[in-house]
């Protein structure tokens, strides 16, 4: 059998430091030698900068790219298209059978990834600044003008280097994301204290996605993989904001993290609607007022109402803005939660010219 791949709770593979996804193809078998069956049937094949990943259900396997010695193709016409790999860790050749096509695209990307050998890359630390000895060779107006001219040239050169090539700038940003992921991995191994991990997680939440799912890379499984990546990305934000976020906030946060690989509102709606189908422990909810939110499955109405009642008992009465501040959520969502608790008979309202406030329903205790 092939080495296993660890998957997170959303069915996404746990990538190595600096590893990024390149292309995916569903309905792919992995067979050995002349055998036509194996434990790896009709799964998702994902090519990364370091490995070939096969994912089926809640399990997965991988082949490292550095172990591939030769690549051939077979099949076609009335037979399934295949990529035949000769690897250094298995006596038989390994066949990748593409039941839904797109073999040649996958092969081309794989050959390119092997040529690049990204697994050998290392993020080099910036060189230490070299101290320079300043020599006063002149003075007066001429010296001052010369210094201004020199600093202007240095500034122009720095700006030209930073902004002349947008692609290079984005690559540097991706390197920072990879560096942050590697730092988090090392801190996990070193049993770093909870406060430091919380600070790092806060940075990672805002820094972005190193390998965003795209239509080009995911192909026919784009919506499914986008849904999994969105769930993986948005969960820390949900935990930070009381288990619920408006769909508009989800859309903005997700696109900000994706950089230039923006997704449309329709794609995000399709992705969140697939959460229950994929068992991702969160769902999209539409209130009667028209407000649409994404919430954790653990964040049910009874638990929310219980938290509101606990907060209310400390203050006597509450309004939407106070609950929003307490639960770290938008005022519109806080209002919906209060109305939900009211509909259960747990709260009573007092509507005046000063606004709408809610009180504990003492009639339940009579």
Write a brief caption for the model.
The protein is α+β, with helices and mostly antiparallel strands. The chain contains twelve helices and 13 strands. The strands form three sheets. The chain has a seven-stranded antiparallel sheet. Strands 8-10-9 form a three-stranded antiparallel sheet. It has a three-stranded antiparallel sheet with strand order 11-13-12.
3D structure, described in words:
With 366 residues, this protein is of the alpha+beta class. The protein contains twelve helices and 13 strands. It has helices at residues 103-116, 141-163, 166-189, 194-207, 215-218, 222-240, 247-258, 265-273, 275-278, 301-315, 320-327, 331-343; strands at 21-32, 40-48, 51-56, 59-64, 68-76, 79-87, 94-98, 244-246, 282-286, 292-296, 317-318, 347-352, 355-360. Strands 4-3-2-1-7-6-5 form a seven-stranded antiparallel sheet. It has a three-stranded antiparallel sheet with strand order 8-10-9. Strands 11-13-12 form a three-stranded antiparallel sheet. It is flat, with a radius of gyration of 27 Å. The N and C termini lie far apart (67 Å). The relative contact order is 0.08.
């Amino acid at each position: 059998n092939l080495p296993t791949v660890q998957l997170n709770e959303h069915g996404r593979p746990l990538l190595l430091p600096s590893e990024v996804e390149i292309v995916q193809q569903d309905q792919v078998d992995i067979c050995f030698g002349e055998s036509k069956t194996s434990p790896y049937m009709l799964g998702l094949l994902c090519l990364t900068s370091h490995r070939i990943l096969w994912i089926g259900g809640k399990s997965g396997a991988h082949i490292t790219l550095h172990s591939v010695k030769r690549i051939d193709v077979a099949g076609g016409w009335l037979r399934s298209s295949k990529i035949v790999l000769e690897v250094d860790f298995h006596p038989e050749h390994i066949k990748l059978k593409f039941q839904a096509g797109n073999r040649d695209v996958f092969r081309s990307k794989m050959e390119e990834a092997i040529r690049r050998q990204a697994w050998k890359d290392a993020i080099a630390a910036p060189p230490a600044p070299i101290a320079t000895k300043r020599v006063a060779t002149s003075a007066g107006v001429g010296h001052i003008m010369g210094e201004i001219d020199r600093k202007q040239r240095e500034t122009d050169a720095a700006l030209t280097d930073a902004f002349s090539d947008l692609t290079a700038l984005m690559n540097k940003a991706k390197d920072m994301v990879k560096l942050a992921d590697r730092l988090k991995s090392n801190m996990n191994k070193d049993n770093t204290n909870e406060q430091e991990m919380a600070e790092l997680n806060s940075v990672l939440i805002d820094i972005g996605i190193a390998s965003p799912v795209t239509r080009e890379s995911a192909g026919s499984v784009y919506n499914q993989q986008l849904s999994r990546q969105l769930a993986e990305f948005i969960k820390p934000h949900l935990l930070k904001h009381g288990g619920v976020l408006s769909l508009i906030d989800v859309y903005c946060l997700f696109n900000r993290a994706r950089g230039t690989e923006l997704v449309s509102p329709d794609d995000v709606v399709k992705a969140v609607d697939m959460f229950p189908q994929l068992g991702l422990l969160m769902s999209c909810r539409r209130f009667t007022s028209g407000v649409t939110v994404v919430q954790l499955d653990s964040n049910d109405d009874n638990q929310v109402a219980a938290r509101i009642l606990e907060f209310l008992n400390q203050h006597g009465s509450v309004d939407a803005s106070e609950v929003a501040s307490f639960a770290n959520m938008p005022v519109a969502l806080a209002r919906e939660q209060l109305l939900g608790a009211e509909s259960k008979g747990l709260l009573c309202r007092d509507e005046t010219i000063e606004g709408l406030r809610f009180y504990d329903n003492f009639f339940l205790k009579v």
